[in-house]
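Researcher: Next entry: Sigma-70 family RNA polymerase sigma factor (Paenibacillus vulneris).
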Amino acid sequence: MKRYSLDSLYQLYVKDVYRYLFSLCRDHHAAEDLVQETFYRAYLYLEHCKDDKVKPWLFRVAYNAFVDSYRKQKRSVPTQAEFFARLPDHRTPDQYVLDQEQWEQIGDVIHALPELQMQAILLHDFHGLSYQEAADIMEIRLSHFKIVLYRARQALRQHKERKEQL
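Model: Predicted structure:
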């Protein structure tokens, strides 16, 4: 990889990688550790990445780091994401509070989905990866990914409808 240095990759994608990993493990400290592990692994294998596939490749590295960590220990209780919350933000305090509440509600609903559905929603809808890129990261066929994503969206719609009926 010639265009990107590790520093430029870190600057471009650290927030995305952190949010993705935090969405998976729901633990600020574990997510921070996994971000560091992700960029360490990225540093080791930077030359294997194609220039036009940096973000999906980095998400795959992050996912593998998460899986390796998850296999070693069980999830712990989520804590506040203080460090990344202090990174520069251009929202007003009111917008920030409203966004934070909304993200917590959305996060709870998404986290309640089955693992594959949660992955599909996070990778495609939240992080903007293509169907194929997300399917590759999840190591499933494209057709299966589309089914999983459809079911995840359907579950979210049903949750929203139940909430509106109350």
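Model: Note for the record: The chain has a mean pLDDT of 83.
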